[in-house]
Amino acid sequence: MANFALLAKLGFDGKSFQKGLDQSKKATKSFGKSVTATLAKVAVALGGAALAKNMVRLAMDAEEVADKFNTVLGPAAEGINQKITELLKTIPATRAELQNTIATVSQMGMAFGMSSESASTFSVGMTKIAGDLASFHNMKPEEVFNKLQAAITGEFEPLKRMGIVIKAADLKQKAFNLGIGDGVKELNAQAITVQNLILDQMGSALGNAAQTQDSSANKTKFFKAKIEELQTEIGTRLIPITIKFLEILAPLVKFISLNIEATVKFTRRIISFVLGVKL
Questions:
Q1: What is the mean pLDDT of the chain?
Q2: In angstroms, what is the C-alpha Rg of the chain?
Q3: What's the DSSP call for residue 202?
């Protein structure tokens, strides 16, 4: 009671104190919400910037691949692109991925001595094989393609993981049966022989991509590929904006590179001011 009496003598107003306390709590809560909202906006902005950056990167990569594809295939590029459209119905990949695969194999084929037409036909065939083996063994198409690429250059060990075993004797016999030499001396003959030996040993994997395209696993893979295609398409439309932004930044970057010391001093002053300390 003595304490209450003392407070009364000092003119303590309990209601005013409680009111002030409530207002303080509200202000603190409001500040907390404001900070949280600001941080959320910053996080969204950073996430959006990262997503946009990834989209532009995908679009630029696809642009480079398309240029490679058109250069390697030449006049046949349009017709092969139509075949890629058909392949995309059964192989969960992006157009850029298949263009890159076909361009790479075609380039190898021509280096082996194949004609442009033969090389493109060979590459489409190897892409189909990669799609079937990837589907059957639940592997990524690019992983299978790397193994096939090694095989057509004479490295057969990677194929064993997919149940395909190629021996030198088999290679010679198959080439003889096909009427294309011994399958060893001429690289183009070796590549064609390897392709035929792989087809012979694929068994149930042959045609698996088309047979299982509606499976849950493949549907998930197709969905991921479509998302990447969508990001690439959006990124393509963002490229002009990115280029314009870089053109605006170029003079600033040049100025900073020519005035490093002044830039460091200016930055130090800004940080010192913000932190309230001398640096």
A1: 80
A2: 33
A3: -
